[in-house]
Amino acid sequence: MAEIATVGGFVQQYQINVDPDRLRAYGISIAKVAEAVRATNQETAARLLEFGGAEYMIRGQGYVRSTADLEETVLASKNGTPIRIKDVGQVVLGPDIRRGTSDLDGRGEVVSGIVIMRQGSNALDVTSHVKARLKEIAPGMPAGVRVVPIYDRSDLIQRAITNSRRTLIEVMVTVVVVILVFLWHFPSAVVLSSPFQWLC
């Protein structure tokens, strides 16, 4: 499997609603707010520390985990007092811009996922692995959330294999019967019927 392409649903994002009057009063621009947020939510690399014959990489992680983390971000300092985001606005969780919607049988919006298979992969194997993985994660899904298969290629593949096997057997039986009836040559019929062992 290469990836899963999703369509529909909502993606949460942190949204900062600033008060223009407060920004003007503190002399802070919108660009300064954006720059401070970017600087707060990033990872910084340091150097290697050698200890006991081993090397340890030191890095600083500054990832935002809640609205409170963003609210405490310092924008500037005035008379020794830090001016934080919560002093000029409010941080809330809101939906990101939607890029598509998905509907199931006209009953309402859903989130759809399309499994993208790598070129040259076995579709039957990929499908079985996806089904196994879905069974593993099913107990951890939120209440009311369930996975509904819409298009499963494994059923089509299995029916195609079954049809091909049945057709081959019918053709071989027909040929054997024709040889026995018209030629009365039993060894030839046995030679033709030998592939039954690996077809079944």
What does this structure look like?
This protein is an alpha+beta fold. The chain contains eight helices and eight strands. The strands form four sheets. The chain has a two-stranded antiparallel sheet with strand order 1-8. A hairpin with a 2-residue loop joins strand 3 (42-51) and strand 4 (54-62).
Summarize the entry for a quick read.
The protein has 200 residues and is of the alpha+beta class. The chain has helices spanning 20-26, 30-40, 67-71, 85-88, 123-137, 153-183, 186-193, 196-199; strands spanning 3-7, 12-18, 42-51, 54-62, 74-78, 81-84, 89-95, 112-116. The radius of gyration is 32 Å and the shape is elongated.
Name some characteristics of this structure.
disordered C terminus, 42% helix, 200 residues, 8 helices, elongated, alpha+beta
Draw up the topology in text:
Elements: E1 3-7, E2 12-18, H1 20-26, H2 30-40, E3 42-51, E4 54-62, H3 67-71, E5 74-78, E6 81-84, H4 85-88, E7 89-95, E8 112-116, H5 123-137, H6 153-183, H7 186-193, H8 196-199
Antiparallel strand pairs: 1-8, 2-7, 3-4, 5-6
